[in-house]
Amino acid sequence: MENFLLFISTIRWQDVVDICVNSYILFRFYVLFRGTNVFRVLIGMTVLWFLQRIAVSLGLIVTSWVVQGIVAVGAIIIIVVFRNEIRRVLQAKNFKSILWGLSYKTVTTPTEIITETVFQMADRKCGALIVFPGKEDLSGVVQGGTPWKGLITKEMIASIFWPDNPVHDGAAIVQGDQITFVSAILPLSEREDLPSHYGTRHRAALGLAEASDALVIVVSEERGDVLVAKGNRLREIKLKKTLENNLQEHLGTAAVEKSAARKEGLEIATAAMLSILFITGIWFSVSRGQDTLVSLDIPVDYINRTAGTEIVDTSVKTVSLVLSGSGALVKSVTPDQVGVRLDLNKTSVGRNTFTITSDNISLPPGIVLREVTPSEVDVLIDETRKKEFPVQIDWVGRLAANLILVDAVTDPPTVTIAGSKRILEEIATIYTEKVLLDELSGKGELTANLVLSPASLKIASGSKDKVTIQYLIRERE
Predict the structure, then answer these.
(1) For residue 116, which of 186, 237, 314, 323 sits 20 to 30 Å off, Cα-Cα?
(2) Distance (Å, rounded) from C-alpha 467 to C-alpha 430?
(3) Residue 228 has what pLDDT?
(4) How far apart are CA 203 and CA 229, in angstroms?
(5) Which H or E element spans position 121?
(6) Confidence class of residue 106 from pLDDT cuts 50, 70 and 90?
(7) What is the mean pLDDT of residues 201-211?
(8) How far apart are alpha carbons 406 and 322 in whole angstroms?
(9) What mean pLDDT comes out for the span 24-43?
């Protein structure tokens, strides 16, 4: 679990974008070319690529080299051999559908074909009578009829009810995806409450519906209306979707068509998921399979030091880190992108030992820590104090042979220093910077900085970091 979390922490946002972009490109290839020969060849090339990676992992040098060559040549073959098919797929789609459209497989069902054709005939006022049997046998109520055995198509239905066709006046009987009989004679309804504009087709449709569980579609030749007869009802249908729903309910195909739609959606979702997994696998094999090591010397940064304490000494100033990652990432890492920080919040006065772990080290995403040298750091902590010290002038050089330094005073004569208690106890005086005697004569005044050693000492607030030196030089008697 810890290794998994460590791996997750090394993933950069650039890696996520990289995987998403390439997964989407692969998914678009599937959407555009599925069902074509190009797609089947691409599947074969993918299998070869997997074999090549397995050969590499097993150390099969010749096999890996041969398969890699086949994959390279195969990419060229796809472009050359299937260029016309590729061009046809791309030309058939606009720019929008290439980038983000989903081209579901267009499978036209018999109910869709019949619905579309019926309303087209209604627009042309071409009369039609189409019977869809139910569970009951119609042989006892339907007379005559010519066997047809033709698959349902728009052209087939339109030709059957074409006015010059000898069989156009009878009814066409549909079973499954075939027209089984044409020119069938249906029993006429004897109802007297029917509208006067209903003709023989309407009475025949209602007559069969009353005598059986069949559904009958009527297209009026005079008015161009579409009606459906079932049971003792004859209803006018205005919308194509309504007619299609009635047919699906009668034939029991609604569940089948919904199942096909769900299967189609599941296929698309599966393809998208496999695209992500495939590209993620490639990314992992490339980015993690070619790890490169690099060593960097990084200074240690001490943070959250307790108030009233001071760092007197440390065992090391820098630590050496061995980092790994993909070659491109490791080569781009600079020392200022890496940090080593030790938290002094819970330290005590005296010597403290810290173990450097990955929690103390900040790394760029995608880089993994392999080794730290040294792994332990000693830090000497002491209390901070303030102490007043006399100021001593650090004279250097010599006066002329006939001159003598009579007097020299500093203003202020003392200075308050803040620092480690232990260091302050070892100091007796604070010196100025070096002051040359060679060029001095007579009476004068000059300014000199104070020199603090070690550098951890600070001038306390309220004290000056410079002193004024007043000197008096006379000639020897």
Answers:
(1) 186
(2) 11
(3) 92
(4) 10
(5) helix 110-123
(6) very low
(7) 89
(8) 63
(9) 75
> Could you tell me where the DSSP H helices lie in 164-253?
200-211, 240-251
Rounded-to-integer distance, Cα 160 and Cα 174, Å: 13
**Token pair recorded at residue 340:** 């080593």
Q: Tokens 């260029």, residue? A: 83
Q: Which long-range contacts (CB under 8 A, 24 or more apart) does 201-204 make?
A: 201/127, 201/128, 201/129, 202/227, 202/229, 202/234, 204/129, 204/171
In Å, how far are 62, 269, 270, 367 from 273, measured between CA atoms? 33, 6, 5, 27
Percent of the chain with pLDDT over 90: 17
d(CA 400, CA 441): 9
Domains parsed from the chain with CATH numbers: 12-104+258-287 (no CATH), 110-251 (3.40.1700.10), 291-382 (2.170.120.30), 384-475 (2.170.120.40)
- The closest of 241, 420, 196 to 313, measured between CA atoms, is 420
Closest CA relative to residue 268, chosen from 463, 464, 104: 104
Looking at residue 150, its amino acid is: G
Tokens 């997964």 -> residue: 23
pLDDT digits (tens, 9 = 90+) for 331-350: 778 888 899 999 988 888 88
Residues 119-174 pLDDT 10s: 999 988 898 999 999 888 888 888 888 888 888 888 888 888 888 888 888 899 99
Long-range CB contacts for residues 253-257, cutoff 8 Å, separation at least 24: 253/109, 253/111, 257/109
